């Protein structure tokens, strides 16, 4: 349980960094919302992202392992972008405001999120 909570926290920070860097191309919550509402929205999106990444992610990566090997790991960028877009669709079904401007911005966002997660894990000292 402690590992899940730390992964959830790291995902929340990484999503905030990605939303900040990508500006209008990745939005979490509305600009007119209160600070508390924005924090809750980020935590809900991070929870969805953490669940998608930990449940769906390993299955997709296992099924596409030959393709990942052939592309020398570049297929992981596509998989992570698709997981982010799946997170967007799930969040939308719960009326949680989370938006990424298409596939290529999802690829950029997944790179930023991966780098951010690595940095935050190093600073916080969690091991994923």
Main attributes?
transmembrane helix, transmembrane, mainly alpha, 128 residues, Phage_holin_4_2, Phage holin family protein, two-stranded antiparallel ribbon
How would you characterize this protein structure?
The chain has 128 residues and is mainly α. It has one domain. A two-stranded antiparallel sheet has the order 1-2.
Topology:
Blueprint: H1 2-22, E1 26-28, H2 35-63, H3 65-70, H4 75-93, E2 98-100, H5 103-124
Antiparallel strand pairs: 1-2
Helix pairs in contact: 1-2, 1-5, 2-4, 4-5
Keywords: Membrane, Transmembrane, Transmembrane helix
InterPro entries: Phage_holin_4_2
Transmembrane segments: 35-56, 63-83, 103-124
Summarize, please.
By secondary structure, this protein is mainly alpha-helical. 76% of the residues lie in helices and 5% in strands.
Structural class: mainly alpha
Q: Provide the spatial order of strands within the biggest beta sheet.
A: 1-2
Shape: globular
Main sheet: strands, sense, barrel: 2 strands, antiparallel
Please, how many domains? Answer: 1
H/I helix tally: 5
**What's the helix-strand series?**
HEHHHEH
Report the β-strand fraction as a percent range.
under 5%
Uncertain ranges = none
Termini gap: 13 Å
How many strand elements?
Answer: 2
Radius of gyration: 14 Å
């Amino acid at each position: 349980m402690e590992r899940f909570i730390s992964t959830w926290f790291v995902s929340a920070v990484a999503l905030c960094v990605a939303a900040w860097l990508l500006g209008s191309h990745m939005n979490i919550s509305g600009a007119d919302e209160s600070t508390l509402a924005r924090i809750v929205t980020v935590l809900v999106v991070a929870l969805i992202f953490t669940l998608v990444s930990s449940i769906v992610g390993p299955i997709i990566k296992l099924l596409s392992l030959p393709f990942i090997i052939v592309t020398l790991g570049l297929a992981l960028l596509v998989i992570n972008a698709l997981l982010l877009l799946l997170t967007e669709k799930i969040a939308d079904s719960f009326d949680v405001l989370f938006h990424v401007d298409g596939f290529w911005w999802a690829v950029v966002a997944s790179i930023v999120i991966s780098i951010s997660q690595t940095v935050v894990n190093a600073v916080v000292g969690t091991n994923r």
